[in-house]
Amino acid sequence: MANTPITVAHGDGIGPEIMAATLHILKEAGARLDIEEIEIGRKVYLAGNSAGIAPESWNSLRRTKVFLKAPITTPQGGGFSSLNVAVRKTLGLYANIRPCVSYHPFVQTKHPTMDVVIVRENEEDVYAGIEYRQTDQVEECLKLSSRPGSEKIVRYAFEYAKKFNRKKVTCFIKDNIMKRTDGLFHKIFDAIAPEYPEIEADDRIVDIGAAKLADTPENFDVIVMPNLYGDVLSDVAAQIAGSVGLAGSSNIGEQVAMFEAIHGSAPRRAGQNLANPSGLFLGAILMLVHINQPDAATLAHNAWLRTIEDGVHTFDIFKEGVSREKVGTKEFAKAVVARLGQKPETLKTVEYKPDADGAASDAKPIYSSPQRQKKDLVGVDVFLDWFNGKFYGAANELGALVEAVGGDGLKLQTIANRGVKVYPNGLPDTFTVDHWRCRFVDESQEGNAVSHTQIITLLQRFDEAGLDVIKTENLYNFDGAKGYSG
Amino acid sequence: MANTPITVAHGDGIGPEIMAATLHILKEAGARLDIEEIEIGRKVYLAGNSAGIAPESWNSLRRTKVFLKAPITTPQGGGFSSLNVAVRKTLGLYANIRPCVSYHPFVQTKHPTMDVVIVRENEEDVYAGIEYRQTDQVEECLKLSSRPGSEKIVRYAFEYAKKFNRKKVTCFIKDNIMKRTDGLFHKIFDAIAPEYPEIEADDRIVDIGAAKLADTPENFDVIVMPNLYGDVLSDVAAQIAGSVGLAGSSNIGEQVAMFEAIHGSAPRRAGQNLANPSGLFLGAILMLVHINQPDAATLAHNAWLRTIEDGVHTFDIFKEGVSREKVGTKEFAKAVVARLGQKPETLKTVEYKPDADGAASDAKPIYSSPQRQKKDLVGVDVFLDWFNGKFYGAANELGALVEAVGGDGLKLQTIANRGVKVYPNGLPDTFTVDHWRCRFVDESQEGNAVSHTQIITLLQRFDEAGLDVIKTENLYNFDGAKGYSG
Lengths: 486, 486
Hints:
Two copies of one chain form a homodimer. With 486 residues, chain A is α/β, with parallel strands linked by helices. In chain A, 32% of the residues lie in helices and 24% in strands. The first copy, chain A, is built from 14 helices and 20 strands. Chain A has helices at residues 15-28, 42-46, 57-64, 83-91, 147-163, 181-192, 206-215, 227-241, 278-290, 294-309, 329-338, 359-362, 395-403, 452-464; strands at residues 4-9, 33-38, 66-69, 93-101, 115-121, 131-133, 138-146, 168-173, 200-205, 222-225, 248-253, 257-261, 312-313, 325-326, 375-385, 410-417, 420-423, 435-442, 468-478, 481-482. In chain A, helix 1 (15-28) links the parallel strand 1 and strand 2. In chain A, helix 1 (15-28) runs parallel beside helix 11 (329-338), helix 5 crosses helix 6 and helix 10 (294-309) packs across helix 11 (329-338). The longest helix of chain A has 17 residues, at 147-163. Chain A is elongated. Chains A and B meet through helix 4, strand 6, strand 7, helix 5 and helix 6 of A and helix 4, strand 6, strand 7, helix 5 and helix 6 of B. Strand 7 (138-146) of chain A pairs antiparallel with strand 7 (138-146) of chain B, so a sheet runs across the interface.
């Protein structure tokens, strides 16, 4: 079989040592790799590349489409941005996959039978990083959730479950509150799940789900979630498994995929043959399965499990009474190589399957582009910066001012402050800040369509009245159904 | 001393039984209460009150300002909204406090020395519930964070720590990503903390913080956080403490405060003298401290701890070998009353202090209204719904169309899609959806001020060009500092 080209970066700190150990095991396990090396991290940052990667390195990533990355050190001081964010955004790595496994009784954990995979959406949600301060008192961040983005991640979670013999996919959302954004994610989960009848599908509200995950993680298998929940709960899962130093992860895009350890570059441990290469190694196992070399992945992973079981441990997981031999980075890799062909006796043996022939051509599209729904403009929320010095009981004064700018077919319906209706008929107990949402609809109040021109002239009247418009949000119906919250 | 008027609601399911048990203990412990009863829950919903509370009941809450609430049952079917949300929003209950305590070895937990209090902001963040669908593919939710709202909750956390003899307050935020919204919360935490030199203050990024909380909760004391993180992590903390059935909570407003159990009404257990009243009882202890009856609170709480220690347990926490006597709701309350005056021997004794004389008049304001900063309008982000059928490489086509609507002193600076810059000089690898942000600034590109009129005429040109504007976000500087993300 032909070799698969991959791009490798040795990184900073303990990076070069754990990468050498990982590549050594892979080679001995028969992985068929053509390695292109690129430089990333500290030196590259200091040479003036703000994201820690040189422009020419992108070409290697685009060519090989597979990136095995060691941890890096971001230099202290301003002006340096995250390499991972740059790679993720530039190459559209929409899925972050983090298996969190307990290796009880060989590695300490309160959750001995845990084996959870977190599949985190990686591009959307509040992480789009779109924020505004438009009044003295209020900051705003946009949370975005797209249909194709949600489809991509949900589909990936089920495909991952299928490929890695997983039995169940659970969706974590907060759609009792965020009915539209998280509701979209949930709806798409429910639509895609039936295409995988062999995999159980269920869902949890993220608060209860997180509580159960933290307490009894053995009841979960694969969990798919929006970006923020995934960020928090993938850290929770890795920590309670006891495997932060032992966990690998992948970042998957439509074209390119990146594989790494979840830990950092640990500069204080560098150059001493101390570091545990297991996190990066397990990232590399995900890579071998991704590039359809399940034979090498199975061989290497089982040998690694046997090594852990045999108590051959680096300092970070060494424990008197459990471990048998304290080894360095190189010796650990040698111990794994010496066990190639062996399987674990207590821990679960792995066996990866090759991709089915023609899988690529049979594969379902990872997102759809269905007929666009009919969209009708039915109103506008005009947001104002307005403050009369009062935190209570100010709404009626503003209400009178805003009523007066209605006209040309548009009428004020309500004013709300931080999502609470305060006009008309607001309550004196409601605390208000200087950020007001004024909802205008067709004066018939029957949901008739309005025009962009009507909205623009409304904004002119606001301006003439000396009211400080800071933002607008148009109100739409889609195929006749309301597309905005109450 | 005069009695304190409070409003009591007996609720649904097990509510009436656990309320009776709680009030019995409070009375015997010498609590000085004048009780006004109101009805909430199932019957009130079905009588046509959509939030499960009758209009006249609000008057009682406003009069007594103290609400001891049993759990309720929300009827199945549509049209019923959350009573808690209604009370919280209407009365401005900005702080949710949830102590999560382990009672090891008397109640099972993996975290025997845990004693954490989660202080959750209760009004802002994505829970303002402001959502829009404005394109076929994208849903949006606004996350709002206000200075007075953040001040209120942070100040409350420190005041709580002071009152309850706590040593440390930790702030959980994600301000490496949400630099403005979570950054504001963090900044206010840092500003208020030095006013409490006797209390240690630190902060964690919420992902790492959550992981540490789930793994080693004994390292935390009071944790204050924005609404969403607090929602998720207060459930995590209660669950891993083993105390979901034993935890009370308070919801605090500037005027009114509400005290309750964190569990539900458990209709299947109702009317059988089975339910554990401890959650509501511990909510009532928070209430007694709130209304400055620390003597009764101390007496009752210590007797309760001693009862738990003595192995007098209701069915939900009864465990062979640990518990000694399985009792019903009434018998549990009698057992607590019989121990009034006793203290726990293994568990930690509590001792509540009276409010200092004149505390009310010396108290710092819970939020400030400083001089408003100078605000300059320097541009606008115009968001478009636009789709040419392509998910890759569409930006240049749109760029040409949008460049053409510039003029009258405004110039297109960048176009971004889901927070990633795609024009000019976008990358072909970037996946784009039908939701585009077009940033216009003064044509000098030097950050000069622009006018509302310029923005309105820009919107007119968008409309004339047939480009579908769905929302706008104005760009401002405050005292010369940029008030928007890149």
